[in-house]
Each structure stands twice: as C-alpha cells, then as structure tokens.
Amino acid sequence: MDLLITSPTGFSKERQYVCDVILKDWFGLDYRLVQSDRKDVCISLDEHSGEVCLPDSFFGQFESDANLWLDPKSLPVHALVSWDVAELSSLIAITSPILPVIYGSSQPTRSFSRNNSGAGNRIALPIDIFGSAFFMLSRYEEFATSVRDAHSRFSSDLSFALRAGVLMRPIVDEYVEVLWFALVEIWPQLKRKEHVSQTIVSCDVDRPFSHAGDLATSMRRIGGDILKRKSLVDAYESIAGSLRFRKRDYRGDKFRDAISKIMDLNERAGRSVAFNVIPEVSHSKYDQATNLRHPGMRALLSEIKERGHEVGIHPGYGTCDNEDAMASSFDVLRGELELAGMPSLTLGGRQHYLRWNERVTPILLEKNGMSYDSTLGFADRPGFRCGTCREFSLFDMKSRRALSLRERPLIVMECSVISRNYMGLGYTDEALEVMLGLKEACELMSGNFVLLWHNSHLTSADDLSFYTKLVA
Question: What's the CA gap between 67 and 101, in Å, rounded?
Fold first, then answer.
C-alpha cells in the first residue's frame, strides 16, 4: 500500500529528494512519484479513494522562466500571508495555529477546502509543503544570496526566516504535521514512524586547556591579564597555570574541569555527549588546537571514550572550502584515535566558527566519510535555520542528489544568546526563556533539541546554572 505523488513535470530529482525526506525518512511510508501535465501536487493511496492536494508554488515559478532558478527574485517575500490551521483542525500539534505560508496560495485563508462528494474525500491545503520544505532544507536562499559576514558566514540577519518572523519556530516540522493530519483524515489506516524527542548535547572543544600554548601564547595571555583586564590575580594564575601545564599537571585547569562537569551532568541524565575536537591548526589566528599527541590530550580523549561519550571532529577555521585541509583534519584525528586503540570509521561533528560554504563544505565532509554534521544553526541567533529539529539528508544542488551526509540542525549555541557580540542577553531570565522555549518547541515536534555549549564557557556559577537547567 503505497502513496502515489502526482506532480507537475520538471525538477524530478529535487521533488524526489524532499519526498524521500518527508514521506520515507520522517513518516516511514513508501511512495511513488509520477509527473504529468498539471498545476498542483496530489497525493493518493493505492486502491483507496480520496486525495490530498497542494499548490506547486515554489517549483512552479520556474516553469515560465527557468532563469529564475537560484536568482534572488525567486525568494519568498518577507511579509508572509498566514493561514489559520483551525480551519482544518484545532488538534494539530504546532507552536501556533496561525501558520505563515512560505510558498502557497496567494489567498490561503480562502483556499482550504474539504470535499465529501461521492468520489471520495478531498483535502486541498493552501501551503506548498514540499516546495517550502525543499527551500528550507536545501538552504536554497544561501545559494541565491552572495552576502556574507566577516567570517564568510550566512548570518541570521541575511536570512528569510528572521525577516519573515519564522526563525524561532520549526516551520517545516509544522507543515509536516499539517500534511500528516490531512493524510490520516482521509486514510486513517496510515501509520507513521515514531519519533521520540531528544536533547542532543555537544561540546566544541576549541580550547581543552586554559593554559595550553607555547611561550609566546602564554606571554600574550599574561600581558592581556595585566594591560587589558588589569588583574594581577589573573596574571598570577596564568603564570602558575602555564607552569603546571608544562609539568603535565592539569589540576584546577578550568577548561579541562568543565569537560568533566559536562560529562557528570549529562551522565546523571542518562545521556552521552559529543566532544568535537580540532585535529590540527588550519588558521593561525582562529584555531587554538592542542596537539592530539600531547599527553594531556591523549588522556582526555581516552577518558571521553571510556566514560561512554563520543569523540567528534571540529574541522578548523580554514577547512570549510579547502579540500586538502579538510582531508588532513580527518586523517589526523582518525590516525590518533587508531593509535589510542579507539578506531572510528565514521565521525560526526561540526565546523569551527560554524563556517559553511554551501557549495563545497558538505561535499568535502561526505567525501571524508562523515556520518553527520551539526553546523547548520546561525552563529548570531539561535533557532531553526533549516526550519526543522529533525535529522535529514543534505542535498547537493550542483549534482542534484541527496548526500549520504546527515544534517543534525543546531538549535542553540550558548554564546549566540549570551554573548555581547550576538544577542547579548547575558545571564538573564529572558535568555533562559529563549533557550527553554526552543527546547519546548522541539519537544512538541518530537524532534531533537541540539545544544552546543563550549567547555570554555562553563567556568562560572551563571554558566553552570543555565547549563544544568537545559540538560536536566
């Protein structure tokens, strides 16, 4: 008993990709995609009457002008129209019944219909669910927009999601819930794959030790304590800490201690943590990696593995568009793990500084055998960059194929909310409310609340209080 998806002609690979994600991966249903000379997308079920129909607004816009593909003119308007989902049902689990329409009917409040005529039930929804999902999951707008920030990142300020007011809600997941409700309204015998909401915790270990580094690094740190922070106490601790590090004495090292705290707190919750490490320096200014063969680093990796946690990869600043640097990072980490008796054929992880070149980075990660990536959140704001809190396969726009690389979207990075460089909310009730609100939205969608908290940002009582509330 398969679903039959009948769509307009064109973009068969893109349509199959998004159908695979929603229908096969997320719902666990088999389907067939056929194309015909029509204007909308209709879903039917083998040997059963009824259908669910959707507009084809996203892909349909290219029928009259193929040159619009990846042109900024093809992006949705920021002032979205909205549809009150209560017209279909008040029982659909979404964050708000007033649902913004990314692509769909121009007058969605008057476009929904349910037909109970003799030919079987028919539901026509006003949202182009497949096209809108492709737009968000493929990061289409990033291919169509060339502006980037100082670190060559696509920032939330540039995004359609922020300007349209949908960054803080899992809009694709909400569309999917509407689609599912419509399907089972007509075919109640359908059963979907069960998803259980999880809190997935990761730590990008940019600086595993607070006093690591050569003599020049230590002198710069001490100079900063005196001249910038105007603290002789900090300068004394930097001197003492540097001496202890050289003696392989890591007691009292606040960054190293934070890693142990992260493991302790999450073990109490029955959860493992992914600790992503920088294998080697790819940029002299932005990478502060400790050599993986350093005795302290080897001991740390062994402890992480022995306690049942994950060692992941955090390719350095200069790897996101550099094939040789990326390959070297994977080789170095895999080689060290093998020497330590912890071989790993597949690795998950995240790009340093969340640097992501949509045309190159996912291809390089797949080429090096990465199993999942968790880079796709914005550095300057938390939220749903891809519109979802569910894991999915990435899409290569150039070769028009689904990658084996899975994306585990990043929902909250602590400094995005707290740091003065970004939202600047500090350790306030408002900051905690933002983080917990996103966690609740993920739970409502039976999705994954993916949290990144750096060990170098877990050194104060305020850090620990926030972190404990998020991972409890």
Answer: 24
